[in-house]
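Blinded run. Sample ID left blank on purpose so nobody reads anything into the name before looking at the predicted structure. Input follows.
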Amino acid sequence: MSISFLRRSWWAVALLVVLAAAIYLLRVPLSFGLRLPIPSSSVAQPVGDLPSMPDKPQPKWAPLDGCPPEGQGGDPQLNLLMNRIDGAKNFAPVSFDSLTTLTWPKNVEDVYMKDWPETNQSFIAQYEGIPISVEGYFVNLREGPPEPANCNWENSSYLDWNISFTQNPKDDRSQAVIVEVTPRVRVAHKWTIDLIHSVVMAQHLPVRVSGWLYFDPEHPGDVGRTRATLWGIHPVMQIDVFQNGRWTSLDRLAN
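Blinded prediction complete.
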């Protein structure tokens, strides 16, 4: 075997070693970068007086006359959020403006929760499920249509109440936050549509709504028309009315 052949072989081996080392060094930063955590600043920013609550109360559910908590059809994850029946030890007082200035990722509109990108799930989860209490006025109340969360049942007792809730008594519905009273919560109260119309809305009395902060991805076309935001309170767990200089539970006014 000639010396020149050995030299050429040595250089070939050395070149392969250098190439292998270069490939390894290039791969390490790339794979490390993919594992970097997402900065919290890209997930959510503090908004108004909404509290920071990383550990939120876990929802509780119960069937409604045979309709399961996940409903029938539609987005089952969304249905579970709408159908929770648990209250909270404390509802955090939040200004009306904090709800209307809270943003959301546009690419989750009209998309099932399971298909949301992870970063957008994190953004919504930062706020959704916070127990809040907000003061304002009821300017419109109507029964919603049959929907999957309530197994698409058509009887009035199984329909949500959709309430336009505004900061001032004469605000347009386009400035409203939608708060929803569900049939699963109503069974524990004496609330009626007639009571709200005759006692609360007819007299333009201030109300304090307590419930769960909720993001509704299903009605983006209503924003700017019949609502100011896709954020709302759903379900409503408690309604208090300011009358005669004090807050009174709506249930007491039903007596």
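Unblinding after everyone has recorded impressions. The two ends are 109 Å apart (CA to CA).
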